[in-house]
Design goal:
single chain; 255 residues; alpha+beta; Nuclear Transport Factor 2, Chain: A; Glycoprotein, Type 4 Pilin; five-stranded antiparallel sheet; five-stranded mixed sheet; 10 strands; 23% strand
């Protein structure tokens, strides 16, 4: 019995010594690791999105890295076997978001193995990167669409001001000709291309419909299919956008 008791004590003391010698994750180390992971994550996103996102937007993204890092605040750390779970507050939005991050110590130092977002199961580093890439690509596309639609509405306002003066839409066949009629009295600078760098298309009515007009964009692929298209759509890839007589007659359906 004494030998068994002694063996148990030896095991317990050994475990205690191992735990004492093991490095603990501190809030400072966790924050340092998060900063490093943000740098790595941004670099991976940049590499993945190369060719999809403009060089200017890539530059802006890299410039925001320091701002992104400051948004992470380590609130609490607890240990679960070999892993450490950190509760982290992210203040990048109007309302702070609380997430959990699972850390482990490898040969190259501390690393984040998984992240748990509110109401979402644990996600691995690979899954997080994939999710960010998908959402970033969608946000980038929608940003282009919104910018294009804003310009089209802006152009439409200028055309309608012209119609009020002349009782007909500008009778031109190109945006270069439209520019000469509208600048600078009706619009300071007329946008000639959409957010993808493709030229806008213009239509004007004749006869009894001489006050009708339409402005078209070929969307992300630049292939404009004509002003006859009507309605809304949710699949935004390569779709045209049409602004006609003060409203969008063919455009994405925003939720």
């Amino acid at each position: 019995m004494k030998q068994l008791t002694l063996a148990i004590l030896v095991v317990l003391i050994s475990l205690a010594l191992i735990n004492c010698g093991a490095e603990k994750l501190t809030p400072e180390k966790a924050k340092e690791t998060i900063d490093k992971e943000v740098d790595d994550l941004v670099q991976k996103v940049v590499e993945t999105q190369k060719g999809e996102i403009s060089e200017e937007d890539m530059k802006k993204m890299k410039e925001k890295v320091s701002e992104i890092k400051q948004a992470f605040k380590v609130m609490e750390i607890k240990q679960e076997e070999k892993d450490f779970i950190a509760k982290v507050e992210i203040t990048a939005w109007k309302e702070p978001v609380n997430v959990e991050m699972k850390f482990s110590k490898g040969d190259e130092g501390w690393q984040i193995d998984a992240v748990k977002l509110p109401d979402v199961q644990w996600m691995t580093r690979k899954e997080v990167i994939e999710k960010i890439n998908v959402e970033l690509a969608a946000a980038y596309k929608m940003g282009k669409i919104r910018a294009t639609m804003g310009d089209m509405r802006f152009i439409g306002t200028a055309v309608e001001s012209y119609i009020l003066d002349y009782y007909k839409a500008p009778e031109v066949e190109s945006f270069a000709e439209l520019k000469k009629l509208l600048e600078p009295f009706y619009i300071k600078t007329l946008p000639l291309t959409d957010a993808w760098g493709n030229p806008f298309h213009y239509y004007h009515g004749t006869g009894e419909s001489q006050d009708a007009y339409a402005i078209g964009s070929g969307g992300s692929d630049g292939k404009f299919e004509g002003f006859e298209q009507k309605g809304t759509y949710t699949d935004i890839d390569g779709k045209d956008i049409i602004f006609s007589n003060g409203e969008f007659t063919f455009a994405p359906e925003f939720k």
